[in-house]
Specification:
By secondary structure, the chain is mainly beta. The protein is 0% helix and 45% strand. It is globular.
Length: 232
């Protein structure tokens, strides 16, 4: 049996387009510029399908388990377990968890007006509907893809945040990133030139496939000597 839930958020006014961030760093933290995610997503209903659903009245949380799929406009979230809450203003918050031994929690969001997508994986993914920030924790990976399949940027870190309001993503190092090729557990990144998107306008009705889950380690990188603050 499949459970379905649709929650409609409070209306949020459109924000003015901000200038793109220009600097990134790979030394425990990283930031890179992005265009807006799909701006219409914030006003779309939240739809969830799962094998089972329960409601905790004391904690005011809906709990979905078993092959959970959540959509909100172009935002897609897949996990073994997703917990959803909603505040009095109507903003929604979702936390996705993976099942040990199973695939990592997965998210995707389309970039506004472009045939590009942001794909992310982590043991836990937290989506804040008010701030429009997704936080991927433990074994986190974030990719920027042209046409849904061609990898342009790829980031590995212990904690990665994808902030659509400020148009940046950030990554932090951690113990879960330690391996023979990365003994200090540092952030690893491969970034394409900003003018080499390889993305064309998407043809009407064209479909794209999610990128495969990350495998293996990235080659060694030379870290930046300066650490940028993406919120400045």
């Amino acid at each position: 049996m499949t459970d379905r839930l649709s929650l409609r958020p409070a209306s949020v006014s459109l924000r003015a387009l901000r200038a793109l961030a220009a600097a990134f760093a790979v030394l425990g933290a990283l930031a890179a510029p992005l265009a807006h995610a799909e701006r219409a997503d914030r006003d779309k209903p939240l739809n969830i399908e799962s094998d089972h659903m329960s409601y905790d009245d004391l904690k005011q949380v809906n709990i979905f388990t078993g092959n959970v799929t959540m959509t909100k406009g172009t935002i897609l979230l897949k996990a073994d377990r997703v917990e959803v809450t909603q505040d009095p203003e109507g903003y929604q918050y979702a936390t996705a968890y993976y099942k040990p031994g199973g695939p990592l929690a997965y998210m995707r969001q389309k970039r506004d007006g472009m045939d590009e997508y942001i794909d992310g994986w982590g043991q836990t993914i937290y989506y804040n509907g008010k701030t429009e920030v997704a936080t991927l924790t433990t074994q986190a990976t974030l990719k920027r893809l042209a046409g849904g399949t061609k990898v342009l940027d790829e980031i590995h870190g212990s904690v990665i945040t994808y902030d659509t309001y400020n148009e940046v993503y950030t990554a932090n190092s951690g113990a879960d990133q330690v391996n023979p090729n990365n003994p200090n557990g540092r952030v690893r990144a491969t970034l394409a030139p900003r003018n080499a998107t390889g993305a064309q306008a998407q043809a009407p009705g064209a479909a794209s496939k999610p990128a495969t889950a990350p495998k293996g380690d990235l080659p060694p990188l030379s870290p930046s000597k300066n650490i940028g603050n993406p919120r400045e």
